[in-house]
Write a structure and sequence with these properties.
It is a single chain. By secondary structure, the protein is an all-alpha fold. Helices cover 71% and strands 0% of the residues. The chain is built from 3 helices and no strands. Helix 1 (6-25) runs antiparallel to helix 2.
Length: 98
Amino acid sequence: MRERLAPWLISSVALSIAALIAPAVGHGLTIFGLSLIVSIAFSIAWLLIFIVALRVHRRRGLWLLFGLPSAIVWPALSLWFFLGFALCAASGSRMCDL
């Protein structure tokens, strides 16, 4: 008998929401970088659950992609800003000076 998908889906959505709101919770703190790291950790945990669910449920595990947009927001934005600043600094443009 197949394992139920509902617990996997609930934990996927819970982790993706936690990844989305972690930086918002830590926004007023002086350690915003820590909340961003926590958010990325939640995103990695979501990815691990997704991979395991795909191995267990095969095609049915694709339902866990429902949590992808909120799980990937902060890692994607962080990467985008990091690459943008790195490329700007590498170009030597004066517009990059903060």
